Amino acid sequence: MKTSKKGFPDNFLWGGATAANQIEGAYNIDGKGLSSADMVAFVPKEQRTGGHAIEITSKQIERILAGKVDARFPKRHGIDFYHRYKEDIALFAEMGFKVFRISINWARIFPNGDDAEPNEAGLQFYDNVLDELHKYGIQPLVTLAHYETPLGLTQKYNGWAGREVIDCFAKYAETVFRRYKDKVKYWLTFNEINMMPLSPFTGGGVVIDRVENKLQTIYQALHHQFVASALATKLCHEIIPDAKIGCMLARMETYPYSCKPEDVLKAQHGNQMNLFYTDVHARGEYPKYMDRFFEENDIALHKEPGDDEILKKYTVDYISFSYYMSLTVSDSPQNERAEGNLFGGVKNPYLKASEWGWQIDPIGLRVTLNAMYDRYQKPLFIVENGLGAYDQAEEDGSIHDTYRIDYLRQHIAQMKEAIRDGVELMGYTSWGPIDLISMSTSEMSKRYGFIYVDQDDEGNGTLKRSRKDSFEWYKRVIATNGEEL
């Protein structure tokens, strides 16, 4: 008689996750071109609206490029990982990381996105980073596109709204696969591919004021990304036969507010609209429930001959996702709203919330792990999870972030339960193991790290790195393979 697994597998990949545009800096050196992230200004707290979706107009881009916008662009400077990667990777190694998730900034390799030849200085930088990781026995997990569309492709094709970008991406993917084939065995195509409907500029470099039909453009751009992802999967398998390549979703497990059938139906629809993306990636075809959505919203996708065959033939090896919170939906408009990333819902009366209003739901992670594994029967990988919080340094410089430890402890405990349930879980990379620039607001004060970076929202500070209490805690979690939480 088989017994259930009691703990994390011996080869479980513990680590942390970052994005190039939030840590690297060095936006204008060594031949790097501008990307969509370089256009995103800091948003002061008093100016933020619910969700903080990033939309940039054609005129704003013109003004930014002409130097006529009085604003700071923190993602251009990050936390200077570009010059400090050796110091940072040594700290990750001290924690015992088995894996470190990074992204390659496409505009560092092809400055305009469609250049004839890649930028050697950019390629060499990632060679250096990968070599440093391997020095400590840390496996790199590399995301090809993490909210970094070269600005040149936005100007020329309106980003992923143009089908031409598929070939540009395939050329970029082939270039890095060939260059790093002996150094990277775990790849992801698009970070949180479901960002496109929420923020087309973030998700695909699409300037929405350049089009007449917003929804049509968004789903056409998504189709182009699906095809590009499948082609990248094909290339990866051909060039690096022993590599694994996956997709990445911002997972939003959605609950009904009550057992009222209308609430249940609304929650079911919410989960379908969230899992639509992984349905295409993992099953290789558009799910039938999208037919009605497209029809009711007058969306007519243009597909080239062979697109459906490409999607069907080149499905992903594993499914990765971010998980920060669950959502609750109601058919009744009077229920109080809840904040949350770029996603919204109503307040769940059974959950507490973070300082940013994100509803904390560790059990929801177990729910979604089981639901996704039941649905796809493919290995899963949690590549983002963490707590953004205001950290207060004591007089001696120490930071007692027990709230972060509590959050992570509860989520890791539920991962362990999901493994006992039979879920095949490859690994866990907590978001922002080192403090970094926020994706949506470009603030620094929303901190996730085990490592504190001395920099404030205005860009002031020494950039000195220091260990928080959570550093030693996570080190012990990894050393005991999740047995000591």
Brief characterization of the structure:
This protein has helices spanning 20-23, 58-65, 81-95, 106-109, 120-135, 151-157, 164-180, 200-204, 214-239, 261-283, 289-296, 307-313, 362-376, 402-421, 469-479; strands at 13-17, 99-103, 139-145, 186-190, 244-250, 254-256, 318-322, 327-329, 337-338, 345-346, 352-353, 359-360, 380-384, 425-431, 451-453, 465-467. The protein has 485 residues and is an alpha/beta fold. An eight-stranded parallel beta barrel has the order 1-2-3-4-5-7-13-14, surrounded by five helices. Strands 6-8 form a two-stranded parallel sheet.
Structure report:
The protein is α/β, with parallel strands linked by helices and about 475 residues long. It has one domain: Glycosidases (TIM Barrel, Alpha-Beta Barrel), CATH 3.20.20.80. The chain has 15 helices and 16 strands. Strands 1-2-3-4-5-7-13-14 form an 8-stranded parallel β-barrel, surrounded by 5 helices. It has a two-stranded parallel sheet with strand order 6-8. α9 packs across α12 (about 305-315) and α13 (about 360-375) runs parallel beside α14 (about 400-420). It is globular and about 60 Å long. The mean pLDDT is about 95. Keywords: Glycosidase, Hydrolase. This is Amygdalase. One of its GO terms (biological process) is carbohydrate catabolic process. Belongs to the glycosyl hydrolase 1 family.
